[in-house]
């Protein structure tokens, strides 16, 4: 039946005869699938833009830093300042739930810029003190050279890994940064690596303007002693980061005589918790998109179903003739459902095509500059699901009219005008 020429001639004849009606009928399905694709692409763009902030950092990691105490405890007054130290790091390394414990520091404090010089050129950069394992938590891609290693830590080598923007600010295009020296607060550091951020947007630009030096070198060069600014910690893959975080906070509170219920004394931020929150949020958004999109599409399918009822009524005499000449019910049903599926699929195909084309144009316009909205496209699997939904919808739209056509008695059909 699908390849019978007469059936297709009937379908195209009906479409030519009722051009406006066919157009308006198909418009409902077109708009439904078009809106579904646009909403899914927009949802993906929002998801990609926000999730970009998590790129380059292990999702089962968390960060811990000191703040002022807010409660008296063991003879200690509230409002007390305190610092983490290397002994804390050794204590935390004994926790079996943890994978990596990385002490970190920053010259001048968090997000403080420092003047870095090379010859007559000056740049404002963040100076970070790190251990080799830091790269496994706050992941960095090394474009050239290498990252800090254990020997750098042990020998307190005056070496550094600089970001790409630092290279642009301190070196000419034809100059080789590796092996050259930069000066930070009068201390010279040899460039051993150039880092490029894994994530884009504003955060990526900030990361590319950082300079990383060995933690022990930092402490010695800038007189920080054994003070630790904050910890970057990664839990084992089989241990929830929240569980590991609670154990870390408990040990640090005990070591620094902080009240167990003083939740503000130690600042902390858990990547896993925030990541899971956003995953749940976007799951809800996707469900809402599908509900709204399918609802819109269903409204268009109802329109096609109603038109097919009108078509069946208009062809009552024709159907009667076919039945009188021996057409079986499955042939009548197949004819009506084929026309319904064809109209639905044709309208949906153009809706899908135009929707994807519009998203691609938007993606080209945004490029890599988007921060909260990035790569608003629909993947192949989603497009195939939408296409399958179209075919099923077309069959559904034609079923009731086709069923009604089957019950038309040949004698009554031949008498109809």
Topology:
Blueprint: H1 5-17, H2 19-51, E1 61-66, E2 84-85, H3 86-92, E3 98-106, E4 114-118, E5 121-130, E6 141-145, H4 150-155, E7 159-163, H5 164-170, E8 181-184, E9 187-196, H6 201-207, E10 210-214, H7 215-221, E11 227-228, E12 230-235, H8 241-255, E13 266-270, H9 271-314, H10 316-324, H11 329-366, H12 380-406, H13 410-415
Parallel strand pairs: 5-10, 7-9
Antiparallel strand pairs: 1-12, 1-13, 2-11, 3-5, 3-12, 4-5, 4-8, 6-9, 7-10, 8-9
Helix pairs in contact: 2-9, 2-11, 9-11, 9-12, 11-12
Salient structural properties:
elongated; two-stranded antiparallel ribbon; 6-stranded mixed beta barrel; 417 residues; alpha+beta
Quickly describe the structure.
The protein is an alpha+beta fold. It has 13 helices and 13 strands.
């Amino acid at each position: 039946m699908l390849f019978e020429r007469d059936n297709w001639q009937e379908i195209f004849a009906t479409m030519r005869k009722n051009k406006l009606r066919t157009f308006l009928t198909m418009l409902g399905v077109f708009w439904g699938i078009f809106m579904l694709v646009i909403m899914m692409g927009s949802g993906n763009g929002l998801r990609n833009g926000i999730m970009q902030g998590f790129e380059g950092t292990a999702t089962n990691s968390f960060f811990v830093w000191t703040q002022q105490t807010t409660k008296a405890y063991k003879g200690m007054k509230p409002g007390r300042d305190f610092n983490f130290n290397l002994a804390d790091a050794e204590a935390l390394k004994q926790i079996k739930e943890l994978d990596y414990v990385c002490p970190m520091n920053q010259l001048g404090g968090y997000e403080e810029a420092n003047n870095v010089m090379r010859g007559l050129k000056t740049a404002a950069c963040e100076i970070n003190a790190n251990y080799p394992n830091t790269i496994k938590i706050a992941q960095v891609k090394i474009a050239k050279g290498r990252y800090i290693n254990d020997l750098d830590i042990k020998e307190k080598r005056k070496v550094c890994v600089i970001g790409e923007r630092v290279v642009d600010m301190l070196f000419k295009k034809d100059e080789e940064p590796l092996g050259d020296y930069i000066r930070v607060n009068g201390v010279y550091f040899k460039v051993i690596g150039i880092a490029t951020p894994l994530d884009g947007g504003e955060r990526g630009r900030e990361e590319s303007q950082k300079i990383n030096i060995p933690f022990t070198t930092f402490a010695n060069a800038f007189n920080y002693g054994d003070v630790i600014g904050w910890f970057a910690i990664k839990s084992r893959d089989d241990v929830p980061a929240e569980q590991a975080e609670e154990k870390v906070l408990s040990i640090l509170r005990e070591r620094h005589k902080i009240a167990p219920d003083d939740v503000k004394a130690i600042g902390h931020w858990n990547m896993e918790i925030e990541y899971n929150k956003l995953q749940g949020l976007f799951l809800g958004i996707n469900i809402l998109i599908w509900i709204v999109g399918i609802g819109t599409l269903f409204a268009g399918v109802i329109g096609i179903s109603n038109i097919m009822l009108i078509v069946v009524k208009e062809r009552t005499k024709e159907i009667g003739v076919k039945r009188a000449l021996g057409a079986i019910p499955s042939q009548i049903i197949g004819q009506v459902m084929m026309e319904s599926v064809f109209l639905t699929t044709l309208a949906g195909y153009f809706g899908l095509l135009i929707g994807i084309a519009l998203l691609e144009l938007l993606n080209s316009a945004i490029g890599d500059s988007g921060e909260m909205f990035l790569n608003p496209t629909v993947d192949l699997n989603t497009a195939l699901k939408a296409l399958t939904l179209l075919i099923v919808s077309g069959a559904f739209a034609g079923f009731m009219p086709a069923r009604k056509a089957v019950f038309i008695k040949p004698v009554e059909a031949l008498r109809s005008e």
